[in-house]
Amino acid sequence: MTVEPIQVETRRPISITIVDATDCHYCERAHELLTGLRSRLPIEITRIHMESPEGRNLIAGHRVPFPPLLLVDGRYFGHGRISKKKLERELTVRAGA
Prior knowledge:
Blueprint: E1 14-20, H1 25-38, E2 43-49, H2 53-61, E3 69-72, E4 75-79, H3 84-95
Parallel strand pairs: 1-2
Antiparallel strand pairs: 1-3, 3-4
């Protein structure tokens, strides 16, 4: 009798990049949103300050007028006031939950 190994599908975490600023109410709200979602969904958060060289490049490249800039798996998701429902729906679909 041959025993076949069980294949377990492992999903990589969803990459979230947030480009934020100091003393930014929308940035704080976005961080709170992401912290809450991290407890339920496989997300990995990278925080970049908008005044850093990488932050300036991302802000300019996406033509964002004000922070935060939110990227999901490297793609533009939104900026400014981030919709909790829209973000939760997007991440749930990507996680396959």
